């Protein structure tokens, strides 16, 4: 159950009703995320696997982490690792994750918090469950999204944003039956707290069983809907979708989605989705491991700089350090 909820949706501002003249975006493709393991072995679903980068632009990669109920001693994270050329957005729905980076950024995020790290010219970071969660076990569920940076911003100094759940923009659907949590961008006149280099929107929405959500969407943005849980339908033709599936939309002014009236018991809350859109960068992408650049030569230089220690050094827990020049 998502941590950020509202007992009475009628007190929230509402997304304006979409004009009947607005063009609903058609569904271009539906893909199903394969499951795998990341870092030291925590389970993930690769939400964008097999999708053309031209349809994802400005996004690169997204993992759904869990949901998993860990037994005592089981929670796992990632070791120290580098990034350059893009931003990582880590959104925790349930559970706790600690972040630390070589520029002194970091802290704990839990139950609706987000950490937005701009890797820029290069950074090392580590993500791990806190010791008390390792000891106790418990529910863990979240996402990590990679947002590309345009060429002009790829070598900017690293930066870090700590976005608390209390800062998330909250808005209801036009009919008052769906809750939208706006993490970045602007939807229905409500803005999220995330500051972005690339114009984009990121929304976590819950559509009640039998409910419908029609979102006005910038025509110059792409549009993606990833289903975390629940059974539903997307697009003007109401194409069926379910957990672990990504809908890629074509051009238009609005995104339509609805939750099936009858849900499995474990999906009683309805259709739970992440809605993403952004202004395509339309630049060459050279991507290898933890580096996303414009050319293969730039990726090779990133590996060289990492191996030479120029992306920083791991920082002892609790210390504030800085990357080397």
Automatic annotation (TrEMBL):
InterPro entries: Pirin, Pirin_C_dom, Pirin_N_dom, RmlC-like_jellyroll, RmlC_Cupin_sf
Keyword Iron part of the UniProt annotation: yes
Keyword Iron: yes
Superkingdom of origin: Bacteria
Cofactor details (free text): Binds 1 Fe cation per subunit.
Coiled-coil region: none
Sorted UniProt keywords: Iron, Metal-binding
Residues that hold Fe cation according to the record: 81, 83, 125, 127
A Pfam family assignment: Pirin_C
Gene Ontology MF terms in the entry: metal ion binding
Sequence ranges assigned to domain Pirin N-terminal in this UniProt record: 43-147
Span of domain Pirin C-terminal: 202-311
Cofactor: Fe cation
PANTHER family: PIRIN, PIRIN-RELATED
Family: Belongs to the pirin family.
Name by which UniProt lists this protein: Pirin family protein
Species of provenance: Knoellia koreensis
